[in-house]
Records
---
Amino acid sequence: MYKLEKRIKLEQDDNIENANKKIDDLHHTLHTSICHINSLHNMSKLGLQDLEEARTEFKKNFAKEKTVTPSMKEDVGEKTRISIEETEAEITAIRNALDVIQNIRALQEERKLLSNEPRNTRRGVLMAQLQEAAKCTPLWIGGPNDSKPPLCGALPAAAKHEIVVGSKVAAKVDGAGENEPPNWILAKFVSYDSANMCTVEDIDAVDLTKAKISLNRKRVLPLPQWRANPSEDGDALHSEGSTVMALYPQTTCFYKGVVASIPEGPSDNYIVLFEDATYPNGMSPPMQVAQKYILAFDNKPDKNPSAATAATSKKGSSKSGSKAKSKKDMATSKGKRKR
């Protein structure tokens, strides 16, 4: 499990050089961990061979003598215990290495926030990056006594969950016009600013000077941190027929939809039918959405809409996902949102 409380992160006064050093240090830690895993694997492999030989000898003696001696039982039992311990040590080492990999990825995202480099605005590049990020979302594989953590698949965040800087979130921003409803967009979390406010960065903004948006915390939702394995943790998936908010394909906006089918395997996607008045039956054709980009539908109105988005947000900017505009147009147009 990704240990948020133990992860290495960037401090407020860190710069690019500090970020690079921390990432390099973690790469070194990962290399050491992989070497350690290889050593443990060889040990457990030899242990299993010894156990198999003991079991074979046990069977032969039992077939010949028709009895089980205490020494035979003790030998097989001891080698079984050793094999279990060695296997558990290897599993623990692999889990720790996966934690380091997730820490490296998180630091790389934090480093991007420091760099302020111009983005590649090609639509295909951004969409490919989002799909790759979905594939890299770790699969939750718990032990026999491990319960599924918050943000595994469809499970909600913990009550006092703190979003990791640089991680992707769903952010509710004001519509482009006065009469347009708010839109849920894909953004990157930047910082907590006060007890009620935080800052996110529009992941689709070209001009980084206008990318940051200050929002009420209730308008920012963390995305799943782990994929749920349908064969092991099916109860952590959105059920068929449930109403969700999902990332519309080839866009960076979340829209209301209905789950038509759930993933069959750990790497499979949901099939979602989006609400879309431009289609004859009011629903889009079936579309695939990764576990990373699907959330329970949020139908709670803002208690104080005027205070939900701070003056530093891009008022009347690029979030034009109004119901009047077809999602088909949004997905096929070169710039899904008006710049």
---
Amino acid sequence: MRNAEVIRQWQILREIETRRTGVTIHELADMVSVSTRTIRRDLQALQEAGFAVYDEGDENETKRWRLDGAPFRAVQDGLSVSDVAALYLSRTVVEGISGWPLADELRAAFEKIERALNPRMREFLATLPQVISAEAGPRVSAGSLQQVDTTRRLFEAVRDRRVIAMAYFSAAANSLKNYTVQPYRLALAQGGLYLMAWVPAYDEFRTFATERIERLSVTDETFKRTRELPARLFATSMGVFTGEPEPVAIEFAPRVAMIVRSRVWHDSQTLTDQPDGSLRMTLLVSNDWALRSWLLGFGAAVKVVAPASLAEAIADECRATVTQYTPAS
């Protein structure tokens, strides 16, 4: 019941805010399908919560309700109710980012916003997570003080264009390797924080997961940015890889077709319904671990049509999985 009230009052607040000439009680009642008496109670509740909702006009039935944005000018001139609520709710997203270099600064900014709101308004906004919440997905383990320090130093190195030397655990080599690199950008993706850096020894950009940096030294040597990174670093991958894209065709069984159809898995995807209820998807992505992992997650409900190399890789993985679960004779 309380959730329904919060949703309704939030809808009323946003409607009043967006109507420059105000809105009547009857219009609000029609919008949320409740009585005018309920609307009056909601308006009173919003006023008690500290929102500057007021009415204009002589007759009760034709009074138009408006919102004075003054309470938010202490935070930032022009910041709307929706802006404040969005920032308030986004704390849960920030809290899920382990070791992010600006996490402390952003938390401090949230605290300043909170201090600019009165207690009743904070109490009202605190009910919104009951209606909508942000749950953190897969992410790196909770950041240690060393990890936070590492990401902060990386942030400063990228900003100041300083060459860094680091000991990095390479998953491909399954060993610790030493790199001297030019750090170009930090990127948040797939629940982790990644460093995109130019590696002179290999004459190419490489992606480094910051949690696998075991030792880091920021040198006094600076570098010039002579190369450009794309705005979207991992646009060709289903994950955090940067390989060359190739056409991929896959078919999903009818039992998962609706689930697949309901989401955009990659910007390049095109979907075609099949007569038997299955779904065909074509993609232009890199044939990397992220793609294979995603396909394997659907189990027997997906089949790779092309390319043949990808189909064989998935088949090999499935055979290895069967062997893993087959009791030794």
---
Amino acid sequence: MEDIRLVGRLGHLSDEQTSALIDFKVLLSDKQLYSPEVIIDEKRSIPATHEDAYLLKFLRAGRFNLTAAFRQFETTEKWRKNCAIDEIYDDFDVKEFEETRKYYPQWTGRRDKNGVPIQVYEVGALDSRKMNLYYQSAKSGTKSTKSILPATTQRLIVIAEHSTNFVVPLCSSVQKRPSSEVPIETTVNIVDITGLGFSQFWALRNHLKDASTLAQSYYPEALEKVFVIGAPSGFMKIWDWAKGWFDAATTSKIFFLAPDNITPTLKEHIDLDNIPKKYGGKLDWKFGDAPDLDEELRSLLVNAGCHDIPFTYGSLHWKDSDGKRSVVVSGTENGKRR
């Protein structure tokens, strides 16, 4: 039986799904939202404006319904253009990037057994004092004048763009993984809500809701699974209300782990070497640390000419085309592009 996580992905399409992808391309082309690859000669070509894997994310999100997929794709394209999303990411200050990542899921630098990047989010650590400092910092910090979006939204977007422009494609370039013909497109998240009470959750509700809304609206099919750890007594009543922020497909990927089941469950999906010690593994990494890259990822970066190990901060792009791999450093320092 085929792995359910591969259904609807490149190399694992049914005849109906393949036809839907072809029809989707025609529809987008007719609406001037997509241009196919143009072959110039044997050695030269102009690539398609969007890769098949990216188009399939919208089709899967819409359950291969062309109308639903088109609606979300068109909305996303207009949003990215009108709000200057690329410019926000490429102009973002490096120091502010490091400040921002403290308040959102953080990549550990490791991957699960399928090669999917692992993120950890300690929600309980975000108390009212820290959040007040964050909002004050966002208001007084720099923001892209090319975008109409408020500073806090720009910061949230930078975190999402870092994942899609660097973390996910970097992990996808690792060939020693199951089903390596299928691009990595998602993240696995360990969400730690230890000590999170109702009053703290209520204070964080807009911060958390904004992130979930942005992800579902403009970054479809970016979530592999979520393991929620440390749910306090009575939290399920809060969850009954909060899960309204998510669609059914997303809630089906969220799993609440009891204290005695944290390590056994994580071990099913992640090697012990890649599970933080806090959750029963061997990885000496804690929330707030820089990513601790595994050997395959470290080797990829070094071979691509990036020797800033353990990690280069700020806005980054991972490029992998026809076997040529490189890290493109963007973002700004002291008001100037790097």
---
Amino acid sequence: MRGNANLRQNMILIISLLLVGCTPMAEISIQVMEPAEITLPSYINQVAFINHSYVPRYDSEDTAGFTQKEIYILDTVINNQIFLGLRIGLNESPLFDLDSIHIIQFRRNDTIDFLKPLTRNQIRVIKQSEQAEALISLEYYRMRDTISINSYQMDLVAKRQIISHTVWRIYDLTSDSIFDEYMLKDTTEWYVIGDDRYYLMNSLPEFINSLRTASYNAGFKYGQRISPYWFDVPRFYHTSGGKDMRIAKKKAASLDWKGASDIWKKLAYQVNEKTAAKACFNMALVCEMEDLLIPALDWAIKSYLVKQDPVTKGYIDLLKDRYEKQKIIKTQLPVEE
């Protein structure tokens, strides 16, 4: 997933330490928000969409063997799925709630060597028909499909791979300028393992279905580039440490986090340092689940000061990373009045 490399590294470290450690812990999944790669100006409330990519050109020597009619059908499938993925990607964010989108069809015929942006006159015409402050434009797309079969140990592995290249621009309709210009490369792959080549080739997804998926992914990932989005991450909490910790474990397992946290809060100040450290760690998780990252950090640091556990140190680093991202997210989301 784009933009959360530090988060992944910290989680890999924590999981690795858990695997080699002996402290019983339970795993849950929580949702966290990832900031967008770019921050849209606060005055942008409505966006419009335009397909400004090339009209597909028919080549009679095309090795794919498609007819001119089939090429136009594939072009329609690709563009429909790209914009569907874009809409769903944007809707992952609190910034957008798009039931459907109207796509302006304005296909380009200029040279492929340079993707000329829309002219001021063209933008002015669009502004007259669209009630929006920004225009998201698909400027170019290319899909490359390959199939390979390779040996792996005693088996054969068939792979279908589609590499997509899309070029996007966001036009600021308020200032008649280009706000974002980005080329997105994405790879979608499918694998089948077996010992019969005929079976493998017939088990791979069909070309048209693969194309739909790859096109959707391209649009979805650009949507995530320009809007904060939620995603699931694993988290862990301690379950051992005496009778009260076991009672709290049962409450947490039944999603009674209030009941569990009441117990952990009391245990955090008891004499037994191991249990106190575990209870503090668990309180940090409760705070993080409520997006209270400063209290979460306070509890995690308190846990580490009581007992220098590398798992706790990894969690502190993870919370620090989330706190820095939270500051960015606050600049990307509208202020609630």
